[in-house]
Amino acid sequence: MARMKFLCDAERCIECNGCVVACKNENHVPWGVNRRRVVVLGDGEPGEKSISVACMHCTDAPCAAVCPVDCFYTTDDGIVLHDKDLCIGCGYCFYACPFGAPQYPQQAAFGGRGKMDKCTFCAGGPEPDNSQVEFEKYGANRIAEGKLPLCAEMCATKALLAGDGDVVADIYRQRVLKRGGRPQTWGWQRAYGDKG
Amino acid sequence: MKRRDWLKAAMVMGPAGWLAGCYEKPEVMVHEPGKYKGARDPLLEKHARPEQKQRLIERFNLVQVDR
Question: Which of A17, A79, B8, B30 sits between 20 and 30 A of A189, alpha carbons compared?
Fold first, then answer.
């Protein structure tokens, strides 16, 4: 079965942060939380690369494995989502995630983290599709509308791809064949492993 | 009511109230590890339909492919 995947083409990313802004704007992400970030590898050195990082919606999600209240679920095609009504803000998922995806709004007193927030692949959460309550808790549900994550759709250089893993892989393969060099699918092995 | 009666009443009611605070709910939520406990997402049914998957692939080809 096809899976939804993110792929950031490091050769194309120009660190414009358009994906970060698009995500913040589309989902009304609160202050202090960035569901997506652009990371520069080897900053200032010749050959530096930028990659856009968010929740990769791992095949065998480590966040779900460590959650003490089991608030994570995975859709048919591999989008990892969570229920904020169950989340206790313990932070275990943050420690488990290899991509640093889970974020906490830090709203509570005494260092309480608040409910975890992360990229939903623009698929909302366990509330009626495109309802006000879903938008307030999880952000936009573009998947229910037949659209894909805005971060990828807005990417000016088409560095960030989001969609069916097979289609994404085909596009990336064609690019590598055309420009030569080695494929650098940053984070793919870690997120999707061999089970992909 | 005399002061003595008040004291007696307080001596009876005080521990009773204190003990009532120790009451524990007998219904315990038992967690099976790895099994989702939250509300059902209506998107799951919608997302399982082949036409929805096709729609997303068409969207991808419309917006994200190289031009």
Answer: A17
**Could you tell me which residue, A184 or A158, shows the higher pLDDT?**
A158
Q: Looking at CA atoms only, how far is residue B5 from chain A in angstroms?
A: 44
Say how far apart CA A20 and CA B57 lie, in whole Å.
Answer: 23
Q: How many domains does chain A have?
A: 1
Distance CA A169, CA B57 (A): 13
Which residues of B lie inside 8 Å of A (Cβ-Cβ)? 31-44, 46-48, 52-53, 55-57, 59-61, 63-66
How far does Cα A85 stand from its chain's mean position?
Answer: 21
Kindly state the average pLDDT of the residues A118-122: 95
Name the band, by pLDDT with cuts 50, 70 and 90, for residue A6: very high
Q: Which residue of A has its CA nearest to B30?
A: A69
Asked if A163 and B47 come within 8 Å (Cβ–Cβ), the reply is no
Structural domain of A65: 4-191
The pLDDT, as a whole number, for residue A196 is 54
A132 belongs to a structural domain: yes
Provide the token pair at A170: 């085909």
What mean pLDDT is predicted for residues A87-112? 87
Instruction: Kindly report the CATH number assigned to the domain that includes residue A27.
Output: 3.30.70.20
Q: What does the mean pLDDT of chain B come to? A: 83
Task: State the complex-level ipTM.
Answer: 0.84
